[in-house]
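Annex B. Sample input.
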Amino acid sequence: MRAMNRLRIALLTHSVNPRGGVVHTLELGRALHELGQDVTVFAPARTGETMFRASSCRVVLSRVTGERQGMVHMVEERIVALKRALVDEDVSRFDVLHAQDSIGGNTLAELKEEGAIRGFVRTVHHLDHFDDAQLSHWQRRAWQDADEVLCVSEAWARTMRETYGVEAQTVANGIDRMRYGACADGDTSCLRERFGIGTGPVVLAVGGIEERKNTSMLLEAFALLRARRPTAQLMLAGGASLLDHDDYTRRFLSRAAGLGLDVSGEGTPVIVTGALPDASMPALFRLADVVSMISLREGFGLVVLEALASECPVVVSRIAPFTEYLDDRTCVFTDPNDAVSIAVALDKAIDGASGIDFLDATPALLRRFSWQSSAARHLDIYGKWLVRAPLALNP
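Annex B, continued. Sample output.
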């Protein structure tokens, strides 16, 4: 085993897209690197794709062709690609192998079964429901075969303990306050011109159109809000996902048409931006009058911290994990299943009557979550595990 003051760490993520788990991987890798660790990030990528954000760590992209159709084939191709990359990089040289999702978890589970590694760490951000038996099997195997399971919220750590009998440890996310603070780079005027943003107010939701993100209920609430504020616009940003949301999106668009809310282009009441350059995100938060995060299921909700660091009020579901770290001084809670409740909460935040304390309570909240403290917590867990049972074979 290598000296504990410098570990060779492999972090595995499922894609190069700007999703919460990928952000977590890159920011954790950066913080571990700054603490003197030797970190390599592994991610599958299609030809021509690059990691959405530059990294101070070494990044290994394993190419997938994407020629086979269907979710099962896509997941299988990514597992194979990650496994190939790890073998090519001599997987036995890593002290710590840490997967952030089911794709990476199954890659490491296979290598463990083959005796190529002695074990691995898995972070469960959240779990999904799959009708397909193979996808369900892969999701379970990815945490079941792990030697150490981590969660980014106590809510999910509790679910893993009480539902699945796994003693998961909580390791919180972080926030780069410099990136999203008052001195952040980025010009909002360019975004306003590009998407036809008018006088507003602007309601922003990040993550695209997804059932888990509760986008259709947000649409219903926005229709109610717009009856009072006819110049309001709803921006749905991001949405680069490996999961298939096409049916849900079609229903969303049909309902928007039924409500008389145009989604056809620039300057419309509802603006679907698609994936945006990473550099645009800080300006996007500053452009918004309120950020909506009314998810039905969430691992942590990094967007909430990003919005608050940008001094933009947030409306969030009154469910865990949000209720673990937020209160009435740092957000506006709402019932995610009630469009009227959501509309009232959005209106309250837009009016400046949210009660969010950006002078004291919000800065105090943000100080609690740093990637440096998250990295230190990870190192403590890695070290204790390595003492009990080394995670990787040594050359």
